[in-house]
Amino acid sequence: MIPEQESFDGTWPYQARYTEAAGFLQHYVDEGPRTGPVIVLLHGEPTWGYLWRHLIGPLSRTHRVVVPDHMGFGKSATPADRGYLAGEHIANLETLLVGELDLDRITLVLHDWGGPIGTGFALRHPERIERIVAANTVLPLGLPGYAELMAGNLADSAWFRWARAAHTEGTLEEVLGNAGHTVTHLMLALQTITRPEIVTPTWIRAYSGHFTSRAACRGVIRFPQQLVAPGPDDPVPATPESSAVAAVRAKPAMLVEGMRDTALLPRYVIPAFRAAFPRAPVIELADAGHFPQEDAPETLLALIELFLATT
After folding, report:
1. Above 80 in pLDDT, residue 232?
2. Average per-residue pLDDT for the chain
3. How many CB atoms within 10 Å of residue 83?
4. What is the DSSP string of 74-117?
5. What is the pLDDT of residue 271?
6. Among 92, 226, 263, 281, which is least packed by CB within 10 angstroms?
7. Residue 263: CA atoms inside 13 Å, Cβ hemisphere, count?
8. pLDDT tens digits for range 84-103
9. Domain-embedded: residue 86
10. Cα(first)–Cα(last) distance of the chain, in Å?
11. Beta bridge partners of 110
12. What sign does the dihedral 11-17-19-24 (CA atoms) show?
């Protein structure tokens, strides 16, 4: 895990907060007014809260902004006795947001695996959710056609084609187990960042900082493994209750999609979102890849602020 005081040359100026309520040392940022409406920013693979660094300060002027690091990422610990399945991450998020912080009036802002994790939380606690912003992610609500769209993405995506081939060759765990050395390639080439000039030594150090050993890479290994090589003991996701699905679909929602994403392809992600939220806005960022937080942070911030003001 990344040391508590590490600021990466001042690019991460936020106070580190920790909880052990979920049975491991979990890091999160909690900025802004304590009594204000809440924004929760959820990262995915292979990032951590640093992904949101450009948004936290501006959003926290008017909102309480909470940014957890998932188990096995960033400044959170990587316990050896966990399976790192999506359901565990959902339970960890529930423990933090409900059990520890007791948050409501939440706007979820979700990216990559933050989408399924945040959706799982929203289905358990729709009464605590005010709105949802999806950024290059999917929101699995068990709707007809979703599984077929995700199967298409799994077959066509550069990220998942590589992960599937690497698993077949027996190299997936080796490559991801060395994420401290490979994370830049994974983000730039297999997921796509369209502004390579942002990749400075500080940037590389920030994203590789957690992955100091094979043992520290359990989280980054297990996310893609769940899809390309599910184990015999991995639980099959349960069909969500129809009432919870209806409650989530009734929330204001918005999709911001970097159209040059090569991991979660827009031709599958956009139809999946529109099926769930047919009246919700979909904003296509033509020159952004999988990480609009990196390729177009000012645009993403402006879109979120406009969405907050108009819903």
Report:
1. no
2. 94
3. 14
4. TTS---TT----HHHHHHHHHIIIIIIS---SEEEEEETTHHHH
5. 98
6. 281
7. 28
8. 999 999 999 999 999 999 99
9. yes
10. 38
11. 42, 134
12. positive
Indicate if 290 belongs to the active site: yes
* pLDDT computed for residue 207 by the predictor: 96
Rounded distance between C-alpha atoms, residue 274 and residue 255, angstroms: 9
63 lies in some domain: yes
pLDDT digits (tens, 9 = 90+) for 30-41: 999 998 899 999
* Percentage above 70 pLDDT, the chain: 100
78 within 8 A of 219, measured Cβ to Cβ: yes
Q: Which CATH number belongs to the domain containing residue 109 in this structure?
A: 3.40.50.1820
Tokens for 204?
């590389």
Is residue 287 annotated as part of the catalytic site, yes or no?
no
With beta carbons less than 8 A apart as the criterion, state whether 208 and 180 touch: yes
Could you give the number of structural domains in the chain? 1
Percent of the chain residues topping a pLDDT of 90: 86
Q: Which helix (H) or strand (E) holds 54?
A: helix 53-59
Name the CA radius of gyration of the chain, rounded.
Answer: 18
Annotation marks residue 112 as catalytic: yes
Residue found under tokens 């309520």: 21
- Residues 41-50: what's their mean pLDDT? 97
State the residue for tokens 């699905």. 245
pLDDT band at 189 (very low <50, low <70, confident <90, very high): confident
Which residue among 89, 111, 290, 295 is the active-site one? Answer: 290
Report the distance separating Cα 304 and Cα 311, nearest Å: 11
Identify the active-site residue in 112, 125, 210, 295: 112
Give the closest residue to 304 by CA, choosing from 271, 281, 270, 273: 281
Active-site choice (30, 70, 125, 261): 261
Range of the domain at 29: 17-310
